Amino acid sequence: MNERVSALDASLLYLDHPTTPMHVGSVAIFQTPDEGFDHARLVEIISQRIALVPRYRQRIREVPFGIARPVWVDDWHFDITYHVRRSALPRPGSRDQLNELVGRLMGRALDKDRPLWEMYLIEGLAHDRFALVTKTHQALVDGLAAIDLMQVIMDSEPDRRAPIGGKWSAQAEPSAIELVSSALTESIVHPAVAIEAVKAGASQALSLAGDLGGRLLGIATSALSLATPATTTPLNVEIGASRRLATVDYDLDDFRALHRALDCSVNDVMLCTLTGALRTWLLGRGASVSSRSHLRAVVPFSTADAGSPVSAFLVDLPTGEPDPIVRLRRINYETSQLKDVAQLLGAEAIINAAGFGPPTLHALGARLASRLSSRVYNLAITNVPGPQEPLYLAGSRLMASYPVMPLTKNQAISVGMTSYDGRVFVAINADFDSVPDLPDLVEGLGEALEELKQAVKALGGRRRKAGESGK
């Protein structure tokens, strides 16, 4: 019997729109090994390991007349070369050229008549490198048990041999009559399912998403925050289908040093840096920024609740605060109030259980943001700590990994952050037309980090002077 798409996954499928495709992405940059790496090798590796992610060979099949949610069926015409594609930059390809290409790719919706994923091998990068760009629909990522394709093709050692999957034969696809019969039988045995399907069809995707956001997310902030619309900002405008992407990376030790000096989490330091950059960007745009100004971010966290291991929380980012240390203290206070905040999404325990977890965990974060009405927050942020040891793809060392989060209605910017092998990687996905000044925001990140470092240095000097005078 074919598995029926869950209510949440169905809502994400219905939320798909030309301006808001519901796929998550990633950009992984590798160092080409001495023996080289090409499209044929990539296809070979994925063919050997795709059996570990069977959903990647299944597609969505609608039930006639919409009397029940769609089902997953094996794709009889599955062609791995359709999904694993090849492109190139003019050598030596720069970061900006790669970002421009990825922005174009992310703006294109996935084909719903095929398994909902694509991977691109991008050749020609500077320093003898290549990139893998992935697009995966959020419906493929169903809970922490889900595994991302990037997880199964990566190894902790350069010469690890790939497992060979068994011969795959697609199961027979149900006929329209069988789909209707199964749906009717299910409605008799589980009438609540039929009622839910009717409601989903009547309310359409947007109202369902808002309802899910209010009932299922378990937001830990006050009911007032949920009921009060987020402040209107340049981040919240009508968006188009085209995207801009910007990426940047930093030394993880800089964030760790600030975390130790100010007795807060590394996540707090990252949020503070982003807040400082957003403040500078808003001021540069001539937006009204007062001492009480803030941006409301939806930030996924893991919780101790086994029934709902990942929840989304609303965090107010104090963009009106000019002092970077006070700004950090306010963010630390916000995050310390969150329920079960001890385990940030993607914390070490989860990563150890899931292997190379960041792609999947970022996708889970995007799912949560999509479930919450965009009227109550200004932007979505995911921050997933990754492994601090090198990873490899057929001997090619992973040098950088950038998570690309989708945009939802009236959300012009989304931010994905991850740490890997001693670096922090940030990707900002933006609407092409409404955020032409995205490079200014990226430049502001470095300035905000340096501002915080200098403030901590000055604070330490004042403390030393105070200690000397008290002797």
Structure keywords:
single chain; 471 residues; alpha+beta; Chloramphenicol Acetyltransferase; six-stranded mixed beta sheet; 14 helices; 14 strands; 22% strand
Characterise this structure.
- Keywords: Acyltransferase, Lipid biosynthesis, Lipid metabolism, Transferase.
- It is an enzyme of class 2 (transferase).
- Pathway: Glycerolipid metabolism; triacylglycerol biosynthesis; Lipid metabolism.
- The protein is α+β, with helices and mostly antiparallel strands and 471 residues long.
- The protein folds into two domains: 170 residues, Chloramphenicol Acetyltransferase (2-Layer Sandwich), CATH 3.30.559; 254 residues, Chloramphenicol Acetyltransferase (2-Layer Sandwich).
- Helices cover 39% and strands 22% of the residues.
- The chain contains 14 helices and 14 strands.
- The strands form three sheets. It has a six-stranded mixed beta sheet with strand order 4-5-6-1-12-11, with helices on both faces.
- Helix 1 packs across helix 7 and helix 7 packs across helix 13.
- The longest helix has 32 residues.
- It is globular and about 75 Å long.
- The termini are far apart.
List the helices and strands and how they pair.
Elements: H1 7-15, E1 23-31, H2 39-49, E2 58-61, E3 71-74, H3 80-83, E4 84-93, H4 95-106, E5 117-125, E6 129-137, H5 149-153, H6 176-189, H7 191-216, H8 223-227, E7 243-251, H9 252-262, H10 266-284, E8 295-302, E9 310-317, H11 324-336, H12 348-354, H13 358-371, E10 379-385, E11 392-393, E12 396-404, E13 413-420, E14 423-431, H14 438-469
Parallel strand pairs: 4-5, 8-10, 10-13
Antiparallel strand pairs: 1-6, 1-12, 2-3, 5-6, 7-14, 8-9, 11-12, 13-14
